[in-house]
């Protein structure tokens, strides 16, 4: 008869995402894995018309993904603060979308109020992928107009903005609207199975954890003659806390949001990160250790 794996053996095998092996970690563990049902594609029905607000790399990627979600999904409108970003996205999405790309020049909107024009263009749903500073206002406007919302993470850069989004979500629920975040770990089946097992005691009581988030090189937009300070900052939004919340809010949220319980304590240690080619300083690296409630 096979022997149950102990905690250390379990972790060393790297089997956190292997459901069958996780169930064997403890003979006393009978936790049932509760994993939401994730559809492979949108169900058939009347065409769903979507509009993209924020035509950078992430927004363009999200729009390409929604066009692949089902044959009855149409991308019909684009909006961005900068015309060249919109035009670049228009070309890329036109090549990728096939019949699901239905954006006309009349439904391409540029400027600080482009989000309002996309919302009012006859769409059923909006994809919000502007810098995080603007998301609370954009979520509120979309919900007020009765639109379904996909909003990239983070939904805000500070507590007041996040509370505005929370209230907008309550309004959306009363209206029967969907609001979906870009916190992709919530929609990863293997991650959901892992979390259920860990919470069920598969590896014993966790007293501390360390989160590390590794990324590649970062983009930067060099300042051009004639740009105001505001335009320069908007184009380099990742490097400015008022626009991004900082890189911990913008990226570490993927790891931090995976747990529901508040930690008993937190230790953070950081060091300045500087680009080695004269680009903008980014801020602090984060090493975080948490003790969660038992």
Strand order of the largest sheet: 3-2-1-4-5-6
Total separate domains: 2
Reported for the largest beta sheet, the result is: 6 strands, parallel
Radius of gyration from the alpha-carbon trace, in angstroms: 22 Å
Which structural class do you get from the secondary structure elements? alpha/beta
| CATH overall fold name of the largest domain | Rossmann fold
How many extended strands? 11
C-alpha end-to-end distance: 33 Å
Low-confidence stretches: 9-29, 270-279, 283-294
Coarse shape? globular
Mean pLDDT level? 80
Number of helices, counting only DSSP H or I runs of 4 residues or more: 11
Strand coverage percent:
15-25%
Question: Would you kindly provide a brief summary of this structure?
Answer:
By secondary structure, the chain is an alpha/beta fold.
Description:
- 35% of the residues lie in helices and 16% in strands.
- The chain is an alpha/beta fold.
- It folds into two domains: 48-185, NAD(P)-binding Rossmann-like Domain (Rossmann fold, 3-Layer(aba) Sandwich); 209-292, no CATH class.
- The strands form three sheets. Strands 3-2-1-4-5-6 form a six-stranded parallel beta sheet, with helices on both faces.
- It starts with 6 loop residues before the first helix and ends with a strand.
């Amino acid at each position: 008869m096979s022997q149950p794996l102990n905690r250390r053996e379990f972790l060393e095998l790297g089997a956190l995402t292997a459901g069958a092996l996780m169930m064997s970690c403890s003979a006393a563990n009978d936790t049932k894995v509760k994993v939401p049902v994730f559809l492979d594609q949108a169900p058939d029905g009347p065409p769903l018309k979507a509009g993209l607000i924020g035509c950078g790399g992430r927004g363009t990627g999200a729009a390409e993904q929604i066009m692949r979600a089902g044959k009855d999904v149409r991308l019909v409108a684009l909006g961005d603060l900068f015309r060249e970003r919109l035009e670049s996205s228009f070309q890329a999405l036109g090549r990728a979308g096939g019949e699901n790309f239905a954006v006309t020049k009349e439904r391409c909107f540029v400027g600080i109020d482009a989000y309002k024009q996309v919302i009012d263009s006859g769409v059923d749903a909006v994809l919000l992928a502007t810098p995080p500073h603007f998301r609370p206002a954009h979520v509120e406007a979309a919900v007020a107009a009765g639109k379904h919302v996909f909003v990239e993470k983070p939904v805000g850069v500070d507590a007041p903005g996040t509370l505005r989004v929370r209230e907008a979500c309550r309004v959306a629920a009363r209206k029967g609207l969907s609001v979906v975040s870009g916190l992709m770990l919530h929609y990863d089946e293997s991650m959901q199975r892992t979390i259920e097992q860990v919470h069920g005691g598969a590896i014993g009581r966790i007293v501390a954890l360390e989160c590390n988030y590794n990324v590649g090189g970062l983009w930067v937009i060099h300042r051009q003659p004639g740009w105001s300070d505001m335009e320069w900052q908007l184009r380099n939004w990742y490097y400015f806390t008022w626009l991004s919340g900082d890189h911990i809010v913008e990226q570490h949220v993927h790891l931090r949001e995976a747990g529901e319980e508040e930690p008993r304590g937190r230790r953070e240690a950081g060091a300045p990160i500087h680009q080695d080619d004269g680009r903008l300083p980014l801020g602090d690296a984060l090493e975080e250790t948490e003790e969660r409630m038992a």
